Amino acid sequence: MTSIILALVIGAAFGAVLDRVGASNPSYIGKMLNLTNLNLAKTIMLAIGTGSVLMFGGQMLGLVDVGHMSVKSAYIGVFIGGLMLGAGWALAGYCPGTGVVAAASGRKDALFFIAGGLFGAAAYMLTYPSWKASGLLDSVAGGKVTLGAVPGAKYDGLTALPGDLLGLLLGAVFIILAFALPERIIGTGPVTQPAE
Known about the structure:
membrane; about 200 residues; globular; 7 helices; two-stranded parallel ribbon; mainly alpha; YeeE/YedE thiosulfate transporter family protein; transmembrane; Sulf_transp_TsuA/YedE; transmembrane helix
């Protein structure tokens, strides 16, 4: 029961942060995707970079158990699904997480987005045997692999580079990019923030 309460508290806090930085505002997401306001992209990069540095640094210091690391198999269908997710994100202005946050903050259009996502998931579930038979769900590139080998993990690395160091390096690159990117690539004038 404690873990459920903790998950709800952490989820609510994360949702509040997503809403505060504008991730639940479709127009703000659209401005990020058309490169006229990169503040949200910079926030996402900073979060990914910081999380990567903390996770891989924690693994190197023995504070994070590598056994909790989960790697999903690579297969053609996941790449197609990623393209579909990106297209849906651009069209709707929501990804699955931000759609739920937007619904919780009172946006009625997010309810339609969530309903569409549930409908799509149900359609995939009902047609799963066809997708499985098509070969699109067969593992590629070794299946469950990481970019670098992490000591103590049961996953192979695509390169001989130490995974912990590679994770720290990539995290640092994301953090540097978050601060180095301009506020916009297209357009001029002041960047407007989402309405409160």
